[in-house]
What we know:
- One of its GO terms (cellular component) is chloroplast.
- By secondary structure, the chain is of the alpha/beta class.
- Helix content is 35%, strand content 13%.
- The chain is globular and about 75 Å long.
- Residues 1-60 have low confidence and may be disordered.
Amino acid sequence: MASSCLLHHPLSSNSAVSRKFSPVAAQPGKRPVLVSISCSSSSGISSTYDPSQLVVDTQPSEAIRREAPRPFAAKYVPFGSDFNSGESYSLDEIVYRSSSGDLLDVQHDMEALKSFSGAYWRDLFDSRVGGTAWPYGSGVWSKKEWVLPEIDPEDIVSAFEGNSNLFWAERFGKKFVDMNDLWVKHCGISHTGSFKDLGMTVLVSQVNRLRRRLNRPVVGVGCASTGDTSAALSAYCAAAGIPSIVFLPADKISMAQLVQPIANGAFVISIDTDFDGCMKLIREVTAELPIYLANSLNSLRLEGQKTAAIEILQQFDWEVPDWVIIPGGNLGNIYAFYKGFQMCKELGLVGRTPRLVCAQSANANPLYRHYVSDWTDFKPIKANKTFASAIQIGDPVSIDRAVYAIKNSDGIVEEATEAELMDAMAMADSTGMFVCPHTGVALVALMKLRRRGVIRPGDRTVVVSTAHGLKFTQAKIDYHSKEIEGMPCRFANPPVSVRADFGSVMDVLMKHLESDGGRQQ
């Protein structure tokens, strides 16, 4: 039997409101939704209405919407504009650029959100962590009012993504960078093994709404991908019964990444070009066919990705870290993190925001070049091959978003060579992690900033790990086998071949135990 949950407000509307839903005993074909809500009062909302008086027992999404002086809302506006911009578009419109051809951004009605105090939002978000009421147990949809406030829970496509581990990297911090407050946000411990799930649940949910509720003629969802986007898109589309189309650069992603969209039933087109070429083609195709574009040119995905920033604050009991280091390729994620932190500050949940660092591979570093040139004219580059294949992008769509985030967070851009990023990945793995090469890029940025004294020993620092290391096993095998041409592989740990007799085994064991390799530090 479903438990009873109440949300009371002393100044609720005259007519009593009572709704009950079961989070467990849902009927076949129906998603479980909100646990029971009850609101009643004998007086109307007065001019002295104080939302901070709300008492939260559990999942009050419907009640909070009813108590707000005006409805929560979000819409597309030209990037850099606010909610009241003269040019805006409903989220139900299929539009990716402003009238002048610039990027769009999703802006929320911040005045409506400010009707509730920062303390109230903190309590609300915390009350939903680990819950089972649909869809609020998701790390993304636990912040539904800040993501897609107007979508019906019935239209949401979720795998309860988010709520990923914030790992205290104690051994790595002490051994390699002389830090005791270093953390790794494992966004890759997720449904499809990367942070892309956070944005894809939002985008595919909106497409589901367009198809099911608004009868829009969207025949499928398409993306260009270096691997992780296609995996997330195909999985969420498969869960919703929506066709997915994927453009992949031939021979430029790992086999583990390639098999995911294939297994989830996507129509995969392997194209003899790089990511930037695939991106150009998918934009041309979606301009001609009713295929919804899923790349980060579409700003909806960033609404889900920004929740990782809010989640970090929750995991620190709403204390703000000093630094957050994020790998960057197409550069939407650095802006998403900035946006999440900034919303928390503007709405009173925290008093400041962290400094952001964007870490790029030296083989695909257009933002880094732009940064070290003191932000002179940006020039796209031809990205060279990198083990950090998901960020092998030379003409990033979200360059303007990234520059905005770096400038407004007093941020920094760093780069990592191939040898540096692979060594850093191996160093992290040797301390109990199992990270992707992109996390290696971010760890290199950390080590360089520590050596220069920019990041201090006592600074609370979070490194964002964007994908699971199991997607990149071949790169790890090649490293530890020392089979990468021109790379010293300084931390390689190859297996030792021994004859099948006791004496031979004892000889190699004793040699190992007497060496530094036999003594963990």
